[in-house]
Amino acid sequence: MTSPLTGQLPLPPGMGAEGRGVGAGMSRPTARVTALGGGHGLSASLAALRHVAGHLTAIVTVADDGGSSGTIRREMAVLPPGDLRMALAALCDDTDWGRTWAHVMQHRFRSTEVPADQATLDNHALGNLLIVALWELLGDPVDGLRWAGALLRAHGEVLPVSRVPLTIGGDVLSAGPDGRLRTRCVEGQVALAVAAFEGRVTDVRLSPSDAPATPEALSAIELADWVVLGPGSLYTSVLPHLLMPEVRSALAATAARRLMVLNLRTGDQETTGLAHADHLKVLRSYAPDLRLDVVIADVDAVSDRAAVEAEAARMGARVAFSRVGSAQDPQVHDPLRLAVAIDEAMTH
């Protein structure tokens, strides 16, 4: 069937790179910024970067296998749309139109008329279904996301890191019933996150290991002025990008400067027992050729400041300590505070 949506995607009026907001005290943004990540961490990064980037591209991991995304992935053999949806929602235009569509994309259906074990739409996000519909009509994930971005008047472009759904796995070191340490292999993002509560993740891998990176994503890394990593779950949002050889090589070869935003919290969930400096150690162990220019760390959240500075220096970076947590919830990044910190890091 011929798609009714073929042809070059027209952007709505006023949605070129020059149409972005500018935070207080910031000059009109001109930098080309490419952000890598997934989930809530990438959304927080994008909410800040939209204020300081002249041209913004989000590259999103595609290894999610839980919730609505996991169901759609298993039943339809497509990329998991959830993290892509969240990135689009974070980039929605700051108008009634954009805010409304952000809520629509994030809206989840709740089944009330049938038992939970019989419900088929319960907890599905409407945005996931919209994105998959565009993929089916257009036949290409990148084209579908561009049309979704145009509908939302997104302040930037969202790209999957690969057109191939990825599976993340790892080894988890934990104590067995007899108290002895044992290593077990865990496959799947959700399973890995759950298992990490019981022990320490000692190895992470992707399959297929030779999955090709999206050429548009590699180009966005090559052409960027700045590449931003984090915040986000270390093993399931940040590290998967570095596990792809093409992406790792592109990050090492790009002329762009590289910035890492550290998490506010650490040592819980999948990083049990790790401090902020350990996050940088993990990155360096998986991507020894990766160089950083700036690491942004929250001045209140980081207790091991000297260790963070030492690890950052090993990767070629200076540490910019700033207050980037929300005043209402210090465990969540404040978009404007983070935008100011990133703007200062990029201009000094």
TrEMBL record:
Top-level taxon of the source organism? Bacteria
Q: Which biological process annotations from GO are given for this protein?
A: regulation of cell shape
The main location is cytoplasm
Keywords tagged on the record: Cytoplasm, Transferase
State the SUPFAM superfamilies in the record: CofD-like (SSF142338)
Q: NCBIfam families recorded for this chain?
A: CofD_related
What is this protein identified as?
Putative gluconeogenesis factor
Q: Which organism is it from?
A: Micrococcus luteus (strain ATCC 4698 / DSM 20030 / JCM 1464 / CCM 169 / CCUG 5858 / IAM 1056 / NBRC 3333 / NCIMB 9278 / NCTC 2665 / VKM Ac-2230) (Micrococcus lysodeikticus)
Q: What is the lineage of its organism?
A: Bacteria, Bacillati, Actinomycetota, Actinomycetes, Micrococcales
